[in-house]
Amino acid sequence: MVTILDNLEAAAQSLSVSAGRGVGPADSPWGDRTMKKKAFKRPARARAKTLVRTGDPLLAPIKGADQRTVGGVRIDIVRAGNGRIKRLVYPPGFRWSSHMKPLVGTTLCMHAHVGLLARGHIRGEYADGCVFEFVAPRAVVVEPGHDAWVVGDQGAVLIQFDAEDETARHFGLPEEHRHLHA
Length: 182
Ligand SMILES: [Zn+2]
Hints:
- By secondary structure, the protein is an alpha+beta fold.
- It has helices at 4-22, 32-54, 96-104, 167-170; strands at residues 66-70, 73-80, 83-90, 113-119, 121-126, 131-135, 138-142, 146-150, 156-162.
- A 6-stranded antiparallel sheet has the order 1-2-3-9-4-7. The protein has a 3-stranded antiparallel sheet with strand order 6-5-8, with no helix packed on it.
- It is globular.
- Mean pLDDT is 81; it is low at 14-29.
- Residues 126, 128, 130, 177, 179 line the site of zinc ion.
């Protein structure tokens, strides 16, 4: 006895067979080539234009940012509420104690750094001998009271969030790195 269910199953099977043929590369009317053209050609043109205009987005100018160079470090700053978003571009060979210390006047860098190392390799040391090392891409948390330097011949790009002098307190970090080990 042929039921409605049997008929439905047969119909479903024939549908899936023809659907299978339809998306196949062999003889489909909306075949592979048309799809590739649509998905491929337009984005490629757009990307080429963007590259010419902005270059490397990690180094390109940031809309609305104040830019300055301090101790060879290029710093872009954008205000964000009561804090700031900063991009710091450190050249190869940079070392805080050699290039920044003379300008700042403290023995160690007394800023907290919270952000993302987007490019490069940095290493550093606290007064008590504790060391840190980050290779991009890496979240960065550095407490006040450190020296730091770029490792290797590639520059480093750090995207940092700060609250100026309130950064350590804002992120719940100590005012100065200290270990009670000893
Ligand atoms: Zn320590």
